[in-house]
Amino acid sequence: MDGLMFDTERLALEGWMLAAGKLNIALSEEQIASLRGLLPEVSRQKFIGWFGDGAIYDKGRDIRKAYVEQWIEEHGMPVKKGLFELLEYLKEKQIRTAVATSTNRPAAEHYWACAGVEPYFDASVCGSEVKQGKPAPDVFLTAAARIGCAPEECLVLEDSPNGVRAGHAAGCTVAMVPDLDAPDVECRALCDYVLEDLGQVIRILEAQ
Questions:
Q1: Do residues 181 and 160 lie in contact, with contact meaning Cβ atoms separated by under 8 Å?
Q2: Strand 155-158 and strand 193-194: pairing?
């Protein structure tokens, strides 16, 4: 969802950098990048390893969330290029769809409502609804089950390395649409496709 459907990872990065300044911690963009796609409890453990204190993560996450929420309230939900073109195509072709996100359900549903994408999806899976978050495959295996498909019948769209790893581990076909993280050698090896935007997904589906 974040970084793939919505251009919110950039906002999260800005929010984390704001939090780092307010909390007087040295938080690099590389460290922030490693958090993308992870469940909050996993990210919190990373902060404990970096700074020796999980409370710093809790305070920083609150600052980041407030920054992102204020930006969306003032400017609206920023959607990624090709999102609605793809969603309209999927709906027209009656292709079953699911959102699989590490974000908790209340926050995710708020995002969907802001963007007006709820009618396009047949199912959804949110972070707290699976035992293990990305890069474990649980979220995609659950999503596949909820739309009544075998994992090997599913195409996973992802923007982050952790998401790519999860999609591959689930046994799905994986297309990466990079956002802030350019695909490295590992990601390219795990991906079946690397695309420039969501609109390009249509040509993959047309070729099936």
A1: yes
A2: unpaired
Average pLDDT, the chain: 95
CB 6 within 8 A of CB 80: yes
**Cross-strand bridge partners of residue 175:** 157, 193
201 in Cβ contact with 86 (< 8 Å): yes
Structure tokens at 133: 């978050």
Label residue 76 by pLDDT band (50, 70, 90).
Answer: very high
Distance CA 165, CA 134 (A): 8
- The stretch 72-90 carries a mean pLDDT of 97
* 100 φ, ψ (degrees, to nearest 5): -125, 105
In the chain, count H helices and then E strands.
10, 5
- Distance in angstroms (rounded) separating the CA atoms of residues 165 and 187: 8
Q: Which helix (H) or strand (E) holds 121?
A: none
* pLDDT exceeds 90 at position 37: no
Contact (CB, 8 A) for 167 and 156? yes
The per-residue pLDDT for range 185-194, each reduced to its tens digit, is 999 999 999 9
Measured CA angle at 10 (ends 194, 103), to 5 deg: 80
